[in-house]
Amino acid sequence: MARRRMNVADVKEILVAWDMGENSSAIAHRLGYSRPTVRKSTQAATQAGLERGGGRRGEEEWERVARATIQRVARATIQRVARATIQRVARRRERGVATEAVAQYHDYLEKRVGEVRLAVLPQRLCDEQDLRVSWRTFYRYLAAQWPERLRGAVRPTIRLDDPPPGDEAQVDFFYIGRWVDPAAGRQRKLGCAPLFRGEGKG
After folding, report:
1. Coil vs helix vs strand at 122
2. pTM recorded for the entire structure
3. Are 137 and 126 in contact (CB under 8 A)?
4. Into how many domains does the chain fold?
5. Residues of the domain holding 135
6. Are residues 13 and 81 in the same domain?
7. Is 155 contained in some domain?
8. 4 in helix, strand or coil?
9. What are the pLDDT digits (tens) for 6-36?
10. Does 81 reside within a domain?
11. Following DSSP, what letter does each residue of 40-105 receive, concatenated?
């Protein structure tokens, strides 16, 4: 539903209906507003001193209450936007501080990115230098500085001789599909974990 710009007459219409006992859902449906919009208006009006079912009110009284309601809703909206903006700025500042912390080890990383396993580097810096940053921040810095080293160079496959029969076993796991559990009467995911054991040929 598209937002409608509300004026004093719109708010007054909501408040009169609410004062007469109509609930927020019914008001929203009948007048074409969202339920949160109606609730914000009635809550702000209550804070402004409107007592539901408090008796007949003149046009001037409804005008005053409607204007006070609009002012309270506007202030609440401004405060909410301001808090969200402050939080975004704080998060950016935290990211900036964390990035600067990683940048202190630029020379160290330059010698090792692409040569040492990527997951090892932040752990070493954490253990040896007490670097405390998230993996996302760490990886973002590396990607900005050495993108060509993070593209995954092709590693050679080193073939080993088969071990003697019975000396080695390998376990794999894969998803098979869905299976109807007769006891529970519902579908369950079915996986398989086969054990492969090296045996002699023939």
Report:
1. helix
2. 0.41
3. no
4. 3
5. 104-150
6. yes
7. no
8. coil
9. 788 889 899 999 988 889 899 988 888 888 9
10. yes
11. HHHHHHHHTTPPTT-----HHHHHHHHHHHHHHHHHHHHHHHHHHHHHHHHHHHHHHHHHHHHHTT
Is residue 111 one of the residues assigned to a domain? yes
Within its chain, how far is the Cα of 196 from the centroid?
41
Residue 193 domain flag: yes
pLDDT in tens, 120-174: 899 999 888 888 888 888 998 999 899 888 876 555 677 777 777 777 788 888 8
**CA distances (Å), 140 to each of 25, 26, 94, in order?**
47, 50, 14
Secondary structure letter of residue 174 according to DSSP: E
Hey, how many other C-beta atoms are within 10 angstroms of the C-beta on 139? 15
> For 7, how many CA atoms within 13 A lie in the half-sphere containing its CB?
1
Do residue 65 and residue 26 come from a single domain? Answer: yes
Residues 6 or more apart whose Cβ sits within 8 Å of residue 95: 137
